[in-house]
Amino acid sequence: MQLIEGAGVWTPPSEAENDWAEHLRTPDLSVGTYCIPAGGLDDQSPHTEDEIYVVTQGRATIVTPGGSAEVEPGSVIFVPAGEVHRFIDVTEDLALLVVFGPAYGSRAANPN
């Protein structure tokens, strides 16, 4: 058992950029926090792993090719590997607990 300190807690990004902090990594999953300030832009690219977001703070809209939804604290979102997605209209500082399965980046192509 391990308590994961700071997971899902808002951290002001430095220099108005988004903030990503990984808190736990095993071969099968990773857990982190992604923060976007109010009015900020989500600049992420699709991931090679399945992903679950849990909104712990803030409000925004998530947009995917399949549609859009307003999110708020308590919202839980599943994004399959490879799906384009973006948080827009961030009206309040947004903190997201993020769970990747398998671990973030572990399915990325080996550049060698």
From TrEMBL:
Name listed for the protein in its UniProt record: Cupin domain-containing protein
Any Pfam family: Cupin_2
Domain of life, per lineage: Bacteria
InterPro entries in the cross-refs: Cupin_2, RmlC-like_jellyroll, RmlC_Cupin_sf
Species of origin: Nocardioides cavernaquae
Residues that span the membrane, as ranges: none
Domain Cupin type-2: from-to ranges: 34-100
